Automatic annotation (TrEMBL):
Keywords: Repeat, Signal. The gene is LOC120266740. InterPro entries: GNK2, GNK2_sf. Residues 1-23 form the signal peptide. Coiled coil: none annotated. Residues 26-126 form the Gnk2-homologous domain. This is Antifungal protein ginkbilobin-2-like.
């Protein structure tokens, strides 16, 4: 009887902890303030391009698939899922790096936990922040 109970508890724990939750698939949340604009070329735009290049390379080559960095007052974090390969991480981060540079070259990005991304098509690996106001 005790062995049967232990087996049921183990099976229940395995089921609970192996089930994928909705939040695991949720995109990262960022807020793009509309009040801050930068002229082209700006130190922020230059720092952002350098930061994204650095983050995509270091995160994909890190054993944890995670990297943080800063250039000037521009801060960033790149992270891939821990079950991804280095190649998959690079495949995911590189297009996003170019997409961010095309779509958001003049505004800083700030993480805000309550506001989702405007597009569900963007993958969740990059978090960027700027100390500029």
């Amino acid at each position: 009887m005790a062995v049967h109970t232990v087996f049921i508890i183990q099976a229940a724990l395995l089921l609970i902890f192996s089930t994928k939750t909705h939040s695991q698939n949720a995109p990262i949340l960022i807020n793009c303030p509309t009040t801050a604009n930068y002229t082209k070329p700006s130190p922020f735009a230059t720092n952002l391009a350098l930061l994204l290049t650095n983050l995509t390379a270091t995160a994909a080559n890190s054993p944890t698939l995670f990297s943080t960095s800063f250039i000037g007052s521009t801060y960033g974090l790149a992270q891939c899922r821990p079950d991804a390969s280095s190649s998959d991480c690079t495949t995911c981060l590189n297009p996003l790096r170019f997409l961010l540079l095309l779509l958001l070259p003049l505004r800083p990005l700030r993480r805000h936990p309550l506001r989702p991304l405007p597009s569900p098509l963007l993958p969740p690996p990059l978090l960027l922040s700027s100390g500029q106001r």
